[in-house]
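hey
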């Protein structure tokens, strides 16, 4: 499965062609509930999972779509939400984890509000993409694919060719593509992209 397709947006940078209710306290006995957990007992992650699951048949074929919506919501897949999905869909937890691990579009670690993606395809690699990764690691103090910047704003990833080789080396932040990037432009890009 591939991530949702990004919309290319040109960005201008110098030297860059960018681009339930409770029973109430009436003394009446609460009716039996269908689930083990009452809504008030649920964590935020479990409630979020339930809201997404409500739109799908509670069966294994729904798994990937549910995980995708959860990942879109949190930018990662919290363990409590995964466990809830496992219970509700009747899919063994190990299998849910296996699917979450298999697809690169899913993250099992919390991510920053935005993810900076550096293309390391051949064209970008030969035009210095490695130096962009080094500069981003230094600026954000993160490793590609792991963790987020101290302020929680950014995560860093490397990706394969994104089909914009003529503009190599390419860096993406959300829907924005930054072309012909140089290490000296990284700071300006991060400032421009900084989440509000
Ligand atoms: S190699 Fe980076 S866009 Fe093709």
């Amino acid at each position: 499965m591939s991530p949702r397709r990004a919309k290319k947006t040109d960005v201008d940078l110098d030297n860059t062609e960018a681009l339930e209710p409770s029973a109430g306290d009436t003394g009446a006995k609460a009716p039996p509930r269908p689930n083990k957990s009452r809504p008030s007992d649920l964590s935020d992650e479990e409630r979020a999972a339930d809201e997404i699951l409500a739109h799908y048949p509670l069966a294994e074929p729904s798994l990937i779509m549910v995980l995708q919506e959860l990942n879109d919501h949190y930018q990662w897949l919290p363990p409590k939400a995964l466990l809830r999905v496992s219970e509700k869909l009747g899919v063994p937890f190990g299998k849910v984890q296996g699917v979450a691990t298999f697809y690169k579009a899913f993250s099992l670690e919390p991510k920053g509000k935005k993810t900076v993606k550096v293309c390391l395809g051949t064209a970008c690699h030969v035009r210095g993409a490695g130096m962009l990764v080094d500069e981003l690691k230094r600026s954000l103090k993160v490793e590609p694919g792991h963790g987020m910047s101290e302020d929680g704003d950014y995560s860093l990833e490397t990706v394969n060719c994104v089909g914009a080789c003529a503009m190599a080396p390419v860096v993406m932040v959300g829907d924005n593509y930054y072309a012909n990037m140089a290490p000296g432009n990284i700071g300006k890009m991060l400032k421009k992209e900084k989440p509000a």
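The CA atoms of residues 25 and 31 lie 13 Å apart. The beta strands are 9-10, 114-119, 154-159, 171-173, 176-178.
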